[in-house]
Amino acid sequence: MADRLGGLLAREPRVIAVGADVLADALADQAVPVRTVDWRPPPPGTEDALNAVLGRAGHAEANATAVGRMLSARPHLVDVRPAWEVLSLEPGAFLHAGPPLTWERASGPMRGALIGAMLLEGLAHTPEDAEQALARGDAVFEPCHHHHTVGPMAGVVSPSMWMLVVRDEEHGGTACCSLNEGLGKVLRYGAYGPEVIERLRWMDAVLGPALRDAVRAHGPLDLLSLMAQALQMGDELHNRNRAATSLLLRELAPDLAGGPHAAEVLRFVGGNDHFFLNAAMAAAKACADAARDVPGASLVVAMARNGTDFGIQVSGTGDRWFTGPAGVPDGLYLGSYGPADANPDIGDSAITETAGAGGFALAAAPAIVRFVGGEVPDAVAATHRMYEITLAEHPALRIPLLSFRGTPAGIDVTRVVRTGVLPVIDTGIAGRVAGTGQVGAGLVEPPARVFTDALAALAADP
Q: Of 5, 196, 222, 340, which has the most beta carbons under 10 Å away?
């Protein structure tokens, strides 16, 4: 008998508790080492859809193709151009973050950003005039994602704003993102006061042209290489971009130095640790877009929030959005602000998580572990959970603390539904009242229903 048990009774037991905490708690009370696994059965009613998708011929191959395209993309910063030029935006046309939205359903920060864009473009002289014009439908706005573009927080893009232009040198796609304004009271957080408009006009007149000239003089800049370096220097490329911004500035400084406004441009970029975020978003968008439109693939190619809804898009279902209510992030607040001041989650910046950075790379960024519980092991645990719902490990984005293991990349709808593990996103928190600006930063998860709805749509496809 002892031989057949393989010496099991002669060794210290190693216990893994799955699901309910009752067993784990009882063993812990007896000083028995136990490892808990956060698992729950798939939601009731999803079994048939899971069987249909997972049992379909070619499903695994479709996912392999889609994630292979995402991870083989080579995003390069190739230009900086105004939105009217690169996106063909007409006067009175705006882009915004997240899935489609109407003025009536827009949250405070989204309304504030649209009001500010109206003032910036000279379409209104006062915030009250702008709000009335938007309510009448005098301006049109649609998602950034519908134009191969992403925007942080409210993500509002107006014709005069300058855009980072990123080209995927492997698959040929192009993605854009606006320039980062800095922190505090800024348009992307819904602020629209005189100082916000003045800064944006300086960016239009000085920063944009200076960056255009520098990028063109430098030549295509390999963003993925820069992101890989930054990840090994303590960034996770969503809420922490200090290393990446420094590396970008190091690349472009010689070409910026000869310009007429070199000192103020260098001072602005160097004083804004988040400046690289927008380049990371455009790079992630280019990578995710390379994985689109693979029939049968259950790979997520976009996660985005507009302050009201959280939406995802999936490779195998084209441009269709699956949406649910955006949640309020759980995090740290600035000054006297608290949860009551927070708007539901907003922004296209979750494209970084979609492509394997941001919250999926938290183990690389010990400086921001307070967002996940205050200790480095919490950040490591958050990254480890993401391996359960992804299809691959990123070949370029590697985490030193995990022995240079690649970040989890390629969110799979079926794995999210089967495990109940939701993607973790680290993000800023906007004030719910238009004009407030940023009130904090923290973590948020998508509503589970967007994944079950996407699964049902994949199952229904012939």
A: 196
